[in-house]
Please model this.
Amino acid sequence: MELILEMFSHTFIVRAMIVGLLVSLCAALLGVSLVLKRYAMIGTGLSHVGFAAMAIAGVIDMAELTLALPVVVAAAFLLLRVSDSSKIKGDSAVALISTGSLAIGVIVVSLTTGLTLHICNVMFGSIFAMTQATVQLSVVLSIVVIVLFVLFYKQLFAVTYDETFARATGTKTWIYKTLLALLTAVTVVLGMQMMGALLIASLTLFPALTAMRLCKRFLSVVIMAAVIGVSCFFVGMVFSFQFDLPPGASVVGVNLVIFSVFSAIGFFKNGGLA
Model:
């Protein structure tokens, strides 16, 4: 308790905790649909687009979120269109956009000087980079993501579970696939400053996969993933503060441990090798 009170005595940690818990919740909710739709790596692809956008923002001395948000949202739309309308499908579309964006970011960095620390923060995250304005914007957008997910939960479930059947029943699946991509893009951008471009995808991936080790129904998986995502972030931040570890890596480490524990429990629950 003393450790937690000491943590919350620092303004920058309070800001990081508020944003991180909300982003973790958003990422966990969306991650279930992304994993089941085989778009588990979309977070990585969009984060690399965000890396390129933030690198450019650093060069032109522009607010990172101001440039990254519209660019990553546009990339999410492009990713859906490329995947649905051409012979380039799923993971290939993600890899195409991901590697291309990462290359652009590296080129931009190589042509400039004095951005080493800035780029390091973008790649691996930094809880010191968040201003009051960033926190306020992140809170508002995170709440919007959560509200939209709850409002359109049934439609997102239908598109995730059986897109063909949903389309046959008259559901405009492209609207809800676009909504899923939009919400994912916003969540990725909001979490990048803290988790970094290399680690933000873990927030959408680990909670969903961990919850699926024990839960089978879609709703139970979503709820369990949300609890796991928020809990792992909080514990990861505590470990980061206690042992002076990078926050992003600490959060991923806790997620990895919990995933291993749930996998072991699921293994023995299902009879092991029998």
Observations:
- The CA atoms of residues 217 and 223 lie 10 Å apart.
